[in-house]
């Protein structure tokens, strides 16, 4: 990936002698053994999601967090995480697009080699985006915010098949146009169910555009028939599954209980689901203790073992360090069975994204 703008110049001054130490942790996996293919690109087995970067409503974002977010970004690259997922709609109100802007800033200011970074961004199916050219323009706007010359994976954020089927063709032709114009290296979809996934795969294939990825909610809380069918379809077609919310919005961290719920809108969802998560959390804790890992690390590792690329959200260095500990090891078959049995036995099921189609 080439930067649109050269890295910021670094000048020598007395202050340079007193710069704070770079935050580093030990390397946790060997890239040559662990990296995976998505279309024409090679990416880390886990990426970082940036939904929180600019979202004040759900995640309490404040601009004062930007310094730590940059440390998170640098920490990821220093430990061979090269996949970052974002969207042109990430950021609330006047901060719309903030996630892409921050990534663009962090990429240009990174002092190491930024050429291997893969940005996966999603384009919202806004009701006023009705032509392929409007999606091309949206792509160009994202490129400007990201300050790069080509997007790694351009993804449709959701399908309109459930409520505006006439718009669906414009979405698909928009992906084709981005790809044909060389604005993106690969294309993908998000929140597409198995039937609609097959349709767009065949449509794109006829036009010489490979469908490289499908991003869906996928975790031990999201093991419903639809999600497993999506995974099966993707496996049969060579499409890589990108697993968002691998920690169930935080419910699989072990941090929350019915008496300790997060603030904001998430508390309404957690109040419904958390009471039934206990059997699964017991199994996660048991395996985590035996392995010397944390509960979130075991939950993320399950996603990796299932052949997906999890993209846990990160908004602090502590979270980034925690997530990195999910790499460099694999759950054993009997541990996978134990977790999946507990998940099926649990009364708690994640509510599916309302935009996901069949």
UniProtKB/TrEMBL annotation:
Show the Gene3D superfamilies listed in the entry: NADP-dependent oxidoreductase domain
The answer to whether UniProt assigns keyword rRNA processing to this entry is no
The cross-references to Pfam families, in alphabetical order and at most eight, read:
Aldo_ket_red (PF00248)
GO-annotated molecular function: pyridoxine 4-dehydrogenase (NADP+) activity
Signal peptide annotation: none
The NADP-dependent oxidoreductase domain covers 45-340
Q: Name one GO cellular component term.
A: cytoplasm
PANTHER family the record matches = AFLATOXIN B1 ALDEHYDE REDUCTASE, PYRIDOXAL REDUCTASE, CHLOROPLASTIC
Give the EC number: 1.1.1.65
Q: Name the UniProt key words of this record, in alphabetical order.
A: NADP, Oxidoreductase
Q: What is this protein called?
A: Putative NAD(P)-linked oxidoreductase superfamily protein
Q: What enzyme category does the UniProt record give?
A: oxidoreductase
């Amino acid at each position: 990936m080439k930067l649109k703008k050269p890295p910021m110049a670094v000048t020598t001054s007395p202050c340079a002698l007193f710069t704070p130490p770079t935050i580093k942790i030990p390397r946790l996996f060997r890239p040559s053994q662990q990296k995976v293919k998505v279309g024409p690109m090679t990416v880390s087995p886990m990426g970082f999601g940036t939904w929180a970067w600019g979202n004040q409503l759900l995640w309490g974002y404040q601009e004062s967090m930007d310094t730590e977010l940059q440390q998170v970004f640098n920490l990821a690259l220093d430990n061979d995480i090269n996949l970052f997922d974002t969207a042109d709609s990430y950021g609330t109100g006047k901060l719309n697009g903030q996630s892409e802007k921050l990534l663009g800033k962090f990429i240009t200011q990174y002092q190491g080699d930024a050429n291997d970074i893969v940005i996966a961004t999603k384009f919202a199916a806004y009701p006023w985006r009705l032509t392929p050219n409007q999606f091309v323009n949206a792509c160009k706007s994202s490129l400007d915010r990201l300050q790069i010359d080509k997007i790694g994976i351009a993804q449709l954020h959701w399908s309109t098949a459930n409520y505006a089927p006439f718009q669906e063709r414009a979405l698909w032709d928009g992906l084709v146009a981005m790809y044909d114009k060389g604005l993106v290296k690969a294309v993908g979809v998000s929140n597409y169910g198995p039937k609609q996934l097959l349709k767009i795969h065949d449509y794109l294939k006829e036009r010489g555009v490979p469908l490289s990825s499908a991003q869906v909610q996928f975790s031990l809380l999201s093991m419903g028939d639809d999600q497993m069918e999506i995974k099966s379809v993707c496996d049969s077609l060579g499409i890589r599954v990108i697993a968002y919310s691998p920690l169930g919005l935080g419910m699989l961290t072990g941090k929350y209980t019915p008496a300790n719920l997060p603030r904001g809108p998430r508390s309404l969802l957690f109040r419904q689901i958390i009471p039934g998560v206990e059997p699964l959390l017991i199994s996660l804790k048991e395996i985590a203790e035996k392995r010397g890992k944390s509960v979130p690390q075991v939950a993320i590792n399950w996603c990796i073992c299932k052949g997906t690329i999890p993209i846990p959200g990160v908004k602090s260095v502590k979270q980034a360090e925690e997530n990195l500990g999910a790499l460099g090891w694999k759950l054993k078959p009997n541990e996978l069975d134990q977790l999946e049995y507990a998940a099926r036995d649990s009364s708690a099921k994640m509510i599916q994204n309302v935009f996901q189609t069949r």
